[in-house]
């Protein structure tokens, strides 16, 4: 029997996937998986189960009333989960917390497969997971417990969903809790992981995309680009990868490989350090070509440290640039907190 993966993204950043059978309503599939999505009537009358479908194909039927969901709301992507029958994998934004729906973050165990340092700037951590590990959306992150510390750190996937070997690009920090542990980590060691989480993920591509990466904020874009390459995307994509020093430019060979796999993908690298001999020096906002903004008909994804995120937002405001959509994630390398919009 045909079934579809439905990603339920809650307001607190938790993502849960449920399998929805062909002809089954999303609300019923969620209940079957012990996730109590908001509902009252379940008959398309009250509108309590209203959510937003961010991507995917589905049928709402005609058994609900306009007071529950108007034609304009349906056109904008709002759905009633008590009526929604998917015909493909879907992503649904649920306007409440996971705890309110009596569900929680998923936990799983991964095995260290490889630890690869890149200069003194970053570390690539590769982990093996089994088939029971939760699926994630390209761009999302997890919390990884640092053994023996009682602490965890948040890292975005750099690998594509569905792979048994998952990857993370981690900034090296002298004396950092995770960096210190990785310096002595051994293949085969186990790590406890919580997730996936985060509202920063690749949406259905309907127009050109501008990707802005700062430092190890490159990680989620590698995950997105792998998905797009596997889908043979023909959409225009431009990536600007900004770092502080020349040594911070890591995994450029992987980016170049995507240029060969994606026919309409281009990228530039930018180094902020004045002493650098890099051909493009300064900040990302100084090397943002007008053609990459497509007059505002563009979806912008930004992942980097808070000063970079704030600078890009100010640049857009100062120059009257209003992208069709703007998704960003701030991160601070030595703490677990992340902020996305």
Please specify the SSE layout and strand pairing.
Blueprint: E1 3-10, E2 15-21, H1 26-32, E3 50-55, E4 58-59, H2 71-75, E5 78-80, E6 85-86, E7 90-94, E8 107-118, E9 122-128, E10 141-146, E11 151-156, E12 165-171, H3 177-182, E13 190-197, E14 209-214, H4 219-230, E15 237-243, H5 252-261, E16 265-271, E17 299-304, H6 306-318, E18 325-331, E19 338-340
Parallel strand pairs: 1-7, 14-15, 14-17, 15-16, 17-18
Antiparallel strand pairs: 1-2, 3-5, 3-7, 4-6, 8-9, 8-13, 9-12, 10-11, 10-13, 18-19
Helix pairs in contact: 4-5
Give a brief rundown of this model.
This protein has 341 residues and is of the alpha/beta class.
């Amino acid at each position: 029997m045909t079934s579809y993966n439905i990603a339920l993204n809650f307001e607190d950043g938790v993502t849960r996937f449920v399998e929805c059978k062909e002809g089954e309503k999303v609300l019923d599939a969620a209940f079957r998986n012990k996730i109590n999505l908001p509902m009252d009537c379940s008959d398309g009358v009250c509108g309590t189960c209203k959510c937003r479908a961010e991507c995917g194909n589905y049928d709402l039927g005609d058994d609900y009333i306009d007071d529950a969901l108007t034609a304009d709301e349906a056109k904008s992507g709002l759905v009633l989960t008590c009526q929604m029958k998917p015909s493909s994998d879907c992503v649904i934004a649920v306007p409440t917390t996971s705890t309110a729906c009596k569900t929680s973050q998923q936990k799983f165990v991964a095995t260290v497969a490889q630890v690869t340092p890149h200069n003194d700037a970053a570390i690539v951590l590769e982990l093996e997971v089994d088939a029971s590990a939760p699926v994630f959306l390209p761009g999302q992150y997890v919390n990884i417990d640092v053994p023996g510390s009682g602490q965890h750190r948040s890292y975005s996937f750099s690998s594509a969903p569905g792979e048994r070997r998952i990857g993370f690009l981690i900034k090296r920090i002298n004396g950092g809790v995770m960096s210190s542990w990785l310096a002595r980590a051994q293949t085969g060691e186990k790590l406890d992981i919580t997730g996936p989480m985060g509202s920063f993920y690749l949406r259905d591509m309907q127009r050109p995309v501008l990707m802005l990466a700062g430092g190890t904020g490159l990680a989620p874009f590698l995950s997105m680009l792998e998905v797009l390459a596997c889908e043979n995307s023909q959409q225009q994509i431009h990536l600007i990868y900004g770092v502080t020093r020349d040594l911070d430019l890591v995994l450029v060979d992987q980016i170049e490989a995507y240029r060969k796999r994606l026919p309409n993908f281009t990228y530039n690298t930018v180094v902020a350090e004045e002493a650098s001999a890099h051909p493009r020096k300064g900040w990302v906002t100084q090397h943002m070509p007008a053609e990459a903004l497509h007059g505002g008909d563009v979806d912008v994804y930004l992942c980097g440290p808070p000063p970079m995120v704030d600078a890009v937002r100010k640049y857009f405001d100062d120059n009257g640039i209003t992208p069709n959509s703007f998704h960003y994630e701030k991160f601070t390398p030595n703490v677990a907190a992340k902020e996305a919009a």
